[in-house]
Design brief:
single chain; about 250 residues; mainly alpha; globular
Length: about 250
Amino acid sequence: MAKNLFPLIAKRIDSIPTLPLTLERLREAIATDDARTDEIVDLVQSDPALTGKVLKVINSPFYGLREKISTLSHAIAMLGRPALRDLVAGIAPFPADVEELSELDKVRLWMHSFAVGTAARAIAVETGYDLPEEAYIAGLLHDFGKIVLDLYAPDVYREVLLDSGDEPAVDRERARLGMDHTQVGALIADQWNLPRVLKDVIQLHHEPPESLGSLRGTHRELVAIVGAANRLCLACGMGQAVVEEVEGDEL
């Protein structure tokens, strides 16, 4: 399955949808010039798919930036509203019947991602990390691979989500799918030209801090921050992602 699923994901990676309510609010906000830039940033960064696609566009070869951008305030300021309107117009929402094929509660997953981003930003401030906004974005995107697995392998991924075994989720994903959500998320980061530090977080946030010695200092620090934020949110109960009331697993 791994040999077939990776090319499928790579081919359809730009068609990843977003939550309808967030998309509707953003379209309303940018329809005129009345909304403040910070309001637009807040709307975009409430949704991982929107956030990833904005960063994808600004880091594309078209803009030819010498250094990649990892924060939305910077990205949206550089894009400008006309380009943002064009981008948002081409993004599709999740269809109303998508949950019939899935066991993944996308609203709860988004809530978990938002909570991890918020916690990561707070930890970054407390520990003196230079870019708290980058920490938020990294936390928001850390589990992005889960939504892709659910989109393109829903039947098998349903089995993973409903498995109440003691194995970690990533181990069950590898056993049933030949890959896990961290690897899929890293593939997205590569395809979308996201900054390497965000890819490292997405790929390594489940790894113990002692195994991160080969990473650059700031990358290691951010992976550790998001990993801690993820564990904190799970401990607080912000980790259930299954539609039905089953003994859920961590995200």
